[in-house]
């Protein structure tokens, strides 16, 4: 029933493969979170400006992506990503075949999902900044960039960190869904090992502990960041 001896490193076990799969999960999570935050910032900007069309597009994006199953979003990007890229390439005169690899598709898909949640966190953090401080900064002659960098930026980060920490946990666990693209992360490797060794419980329990370790460590890291950015406010 349980074959925990199959978790050793070397030719006799799956330790090496599970370690590489864990590193792949971490890599995809970091890349997706970084890309998602960039997309979230653009989305927040579009929601806050006076341009009605930009606001409609941003609201449509966040509403639709949050309203459909995440696996469906991954499938849409997985099957439609290559077609979109080739269509764009044709506009620049390139008519060859382009195929995105599983890492690229997985990263884009998870980033596309996490950005919708991050955008709401960042928007709420932006609106939480006391506007009187902004007016005071303008009265002191600070430029818009200086106000963003020195006044609003640090406070937005402080207000957003708890929510961003939660989005990171969601992003980390959502990487399990991209096993459908063929990318060998924790869940994909777990399925492969389970089929070969005919001991699914062994590897499912191992996968659970790996995710629990990653989320626990991440939680402590974000807690440290929150305490660091809250110095002088508590």
Helix and strand composition category: mainly alpha
Low-confidence stretches: none
Largest sheet geometry: none
Average predicted local confidence, pLDDT: 89
CATH architecture annotation = Orthogonal Bundle
What portion of the residues fall into strands of 2 or more residues?
Answer: under 5%
Distance between the termini: 52 Å
How many helices in DSSP terms?
A: 8
**In the CATH hierarchy, what is the class?**
Mainly Alpha
Total number of beta strands:
0
Please give the domain count.
Answer: 1
Helix-residue proportion: over 70%
User: H/E order of the elements?
Assistant: HHHHHHHH
And the CATH topology? Answer: MetI-like fold
Radius of gyration: 21 Å
Report on the architecture of this protein.
This protein is mostly helical and about 230 residues long. Helices cover about 75% and strands about 0% of the residues. The chain is built from 8 helices and no strands. The protein has one domain (about 20-190, about 200-230): MetI-like fold (Orthogonal Bundle). It is globular and about 70 Å long. The chain starts with 14 loop residues before the first helix and ends in a 5-residue tail after the last helix. The protein has helices spanning about 15-50, 50-65, 70-90, 100-130, 130-140, 145-175, 185-195, 200-230.
């Amino acid at each position: 029933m349980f074959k925990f001896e199959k978790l050793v490193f070397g030719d006799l076990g799956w330790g090496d493969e599970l370690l590489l799969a864990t590193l792949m999960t971490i890599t995809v999570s970091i890349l997706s979170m970084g890309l998602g935050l960039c997309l979230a910032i653009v989305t927040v900007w579009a929601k806050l400006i006076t341009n009605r069309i930009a606001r409609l597009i941003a609201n449509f994006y966040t509403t639709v992506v949050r309203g459909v199953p995440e696996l469906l979003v991954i499938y849409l990007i997985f099957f439609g990503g290559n077609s979109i890229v080739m269509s764009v390439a044709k506009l620049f005169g390139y008519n060859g075949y382009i195929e995105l690899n599983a890492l690229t598709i997985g990263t884009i898909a998870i980033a596309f999902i996490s950005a919708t949640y991050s955008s709401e966190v960042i928007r709420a953090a932006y609106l939480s900044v006391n506007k009187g401080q902004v007016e005071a900064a303008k009265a002191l002659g600070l430029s818009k960039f200086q106000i963003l960098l020195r006044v609003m930026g640090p406070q937005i980060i402080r207000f957003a960190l708890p929510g961003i920490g939660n989005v990171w946990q969601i992003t980390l666990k959502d990487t399990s869904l991209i096993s459908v693209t063929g990318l060998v992360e924790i869940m994909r490797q777990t399925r492969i090992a389970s089929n070969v060794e005919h001991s699914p419980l062994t590897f499912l329990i191992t996968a659970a502990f790996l995710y629990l370790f990653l989320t626990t460590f991440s939680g402590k890291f974000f807690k440290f960041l929150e305490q660091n950015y809250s110095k002088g406010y508590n």
